[in-house]
Amino acid sequence: MTEPQQKRPVVFAGENPILQLFRAGSEEAVASASVWRCTYSEQGVGTVLSVWMDPAESGLGEQAVTGIYADNAELARMVWENFNRHFGSFQNRGLDEAEVRPARFVEEAGGRRSHRITCAAGTERIDLLWQDVQDVFHSVGSATFGETTWEITNVVCPCTRGSITVNGRSVAGEVRQTGGTFQSSAFLAFCESWVSRS
């Protein structure tokens, strides 16, 4: 094994599955969820969920949830400031001033068939389900947010189907096949690392 040419600080290592649902037959998003399961960061380990739902288009009305849930508040703030607030799916969605809500998480892996993450916070229960992995590949990319450039590596598993439920009620939306690197609006991302290059 050769020595790395350059050592850079690792800011996040873990998993970052994404699940975005769209109104049937359109490109209008009705719900977005980003999960960060951290196995290493300066803020410690834990799980963070950033989620947004359109109350009307999701079909959930007052039961639609928008917020940041975590079992490690410091980690949640780091993830929001460095990553999620720069993602188009979460910009101008009312999350910038959101308080971190304490939550518990359970993850159930079912191989290529399904992967479920459940978030419980008080009386709320949010279930995220990815189904039917259609591909598995290693991705190496970069992104610049503000003055920071990140090198991002992960193992990506785009999925054919996915769903979000809140207290047993399903969001009225569907997964969209997007093409491009991630291929689908529902994908699992394992072995993910965000390394600062600037």
Short description:
The protein is mainly beta and 198 residues long.
Task: Show the helix and strand layout.
Layout: E1 10-15, E2 18-22, E3 29-40, E4 46-53, E5 67-70, H1 73-82, E6 100-102, E7 104-110, E8 114-121, E9 124-133, E10 137-145, E11 148-166, E12 169-170, E13 177-179, E14 183-184, E15 186-196
Parallel strand pairs: 5-6
Antiparallel strand pairs: 1-3, 1-15, 2-3, 2-15, 3-4, 4-5, 7-8, 8-9, 9-11, 10-11, 11-12, 11-15, 13-14
Structural account:
- The protein is mainly β.
- Helices cover about 5% and strands about 55% of the residues.
- It is built from 1 helix and 15 strands, in the order E-E-E-E-E-H-E-E-E-E-E-E-E-E-E-E.
- The strands form 2 sheets. Strands 1, 2, 3, 4, 5, 6, 7, 8, 9, 10, 11, 12 and 15 form a 13-stranded mixed sheet that branches. Strands 13-14 form a two-stranded antiparallel sheet.
- The chain is globular, with a radius of gyration of 16 Å.
- The protein starts with 9 loop residues before the first strand and ends with a strand.
Binned, the helix content reads: under 10%
Secondary structural class: mainly beta
User: What's the number of helices?
Assistant: 1
The N- to C-terminal Cα distance equals 27 Å
Shape: globular
Keywords:
two-stranded antiparallel sheet; 1 helix; mainly beta; 198 residues; globular; 5% helix
